[in-house]
Amino acid sequence: MMPKRTFVRAGLRVGAWGVLLGWLSGCRTPPPLHPITLDSQTLTEAQLLARQRSQIIEEMREKARIEATKRKEELEAARQKVGEAVTLNSEDEFVVDVWLQDGITQLAQFPYKGVVRPDGKEFIPGVGEVQCFGRTVEKVRDEVRRKLSRNLNNPMVNIRITRHVGATVAIVGEVKMHPNRDTGPGVYPIKGATPLTDFIMAAGGYTDKADLHNIRVVYPDGRTEVVDLERILAGDMRKNIVLRGSETVYLPEMKKTGSVLVMGHVGAPGVYGLRGDNRISRVLAEAGGILPSGTRKRVLLVRGDLYKPQVIRVDLDRILKNGLKEEDVRLVNGDTIYVPLSHIAVFREFLSVVGLPISLARQFVFLQDDVFSGNNSR
Hints:
alpha+beta; wza like fold; Outer membrane lipoprotein wza fold like; 3 domains; 5-stranded mixed β-sheet; 10 helices
């Protein structure tokens, strides 16, 4: 039994804690206690899934908003480049006026008539060589005023274009030619600043052999810039340079990394170069595709030398219908592709030529299937 003194101390201790908690809560009596059940505090599985789904949707929307904002900024930057004023080109003629402070008398040797030389420059008295090509009249005027201010007090400079030849850009290489309009390699006029992509498409576009990753732009001053057109077409508009005239755009042919031999029942048997995407489906498409008499399910790929050849059977139907790119074999130099007769073609050939009974013809078809679908290493 607890001693009386200990019991009193315990009671006082409990009472003190009760007074302190009541004072902290700001109420004389503690709030009534409600029974807590497990169902009211836990979420059901459906509620958890709904919450996760809404969270994922919100994250996707936020990523889409960020991506849209980024694309908008890139397009706006490209529009600002295109919207710049028309610039001076080779053989453009202009007049430079330099007025003194009275506004009536011009400086000696002015007005001066200038012509933009093929190198893009022109000599102006009292100033020297000034880069004109690719620059607006305002920028050329500011440079002339700044250099004249070294010897004159606040000169008034004005530049007037008297003959504007207009800008042209040359394009060579793998440019597509269309029979119904004037396209292909050549020299084309442009109206002011023009994005590279717009110019290439206006000139006819590019052929299937063009190396879009290494398009070269040669400027009038000899500078060369390599442009990845594939990246621009994928959406990176910041790489889309602006042409102003007298540039040369070169679309090189994709370098070949070897060749393969295509035989059998295809549209155009022969030797085809490997470049870019060297998968068997691409090469067969370039060879005119498989004829109706050929089979898509047992395309044979022979690799290696004559002593130890490796035979790989490719099911092109499975690749094209199901989108199984991992089964679309990458070709190497020296491969041979053979498209054999289909079962139906073999069946018809033996019925019409040999005149075999149907039972024997079926056995031959089964035998052919065993040969082509059996050991691939033989």
